[in-house]
Design a protein that fits this description.
Blueprint (H helix, E strand, L loop, with lengths): L1 H10 L4 H5 L5 E6 L4 E3 L7 E7 L2 E6 L5 E7 L4 E2 L2 H6 L6 E4 L3 E7 H10 L1 H27 L2 H11 L3 H4 L2 H7 L4 H13 L1
Antiparallel strand pairs: 1-8, 2-7, 3-6, 3-8, 4-5, 4-7
Helix pairs in contact: 4-5, 8-9
């Protein structure tokens, strides 16, 4: 539980009493590889904190292709915020890529927690802002960078992905075809 406390307090300073308000409502879950925490079409009823393991967030496009939009590692929060906030159907899947352990916080309990103190309310706002900025950063990468720039951004910001995901997973994440990623890698190595 130290990891989640450290992550929360990196967003907002919080007294032990305030932090302890969360302890009775948090649930630890062990998740097997290839298990979905959330499927497209379900309502996202939990925010997850990843204690161990690795997840991908993806959607299935109109052609049936899985398009990765996020990877989440230990000490990350994982949630389809649009579904969670509106309590409407999710557009994304959240799938474990290896055996994992998460801490789950249910929607109604999170709402009560946010109402319990100004610091929890501030945390809720800051975590939503952080998620929004991740989405904008990804959108800007896809819209304004060349495939080579996207790959270089990946190497700079998320180099661990090269060891954890397949070329197909990486290529969908940066918005190119697997064969284009292969050519791009060869070109960069030969430079």
């Amino acid at each position: 539980m130290d990891a989640i406390k450290n992550t929360i307090t990196s967003f907002v300073a919080m007294s032990d009493d305030e932090y302890n308000l969360m302890l009775p409502i948090i649930e630890r879950r062990d998740i097997k590889k290839d298990t979905d925490l959330l499927q497209q079409g379900e309502i996202c009823r939990h925010i997850y904190f990843i204690e161990s393991g690795f997840f991908r967030m993806f959607y299935v496009d109109y052609k049936g292709n899985e398009i990765n939009c996020r990877f989440a590692k230990p000490n990350d929060f994982l949630v389809d915020f649009a579904s969670f906030i509106t309590q409407k159907k999710a557009q994304y899947h959240c799938r474990a890529m290896e055996d994992s352990t998460v801490l789950a916080l249910e929607y109604d309990k999170v709402e009560n927690l946010y109402n319990s103190s100004p610091n929890w309310s501030k945390f809720g706002r800051l975590i939503a802002e952080s998620a929004y900025l991740l989405i904008i950063e990804r959108e800007e990468m896809l819209h304004f960078q060349t495939p080579e720039e996207r790959y270089k951004t990946l190497l700079k910001k998320e180099p661990y992905l090269l060891q954890l995901v397949s070329q197909n997973q990486l290529s969908s994440y940066i918005g190119i075809k697997p064969e284009s990623l292969s050519r791009l890698r060869k070109r960069m190595v030969s430079k």
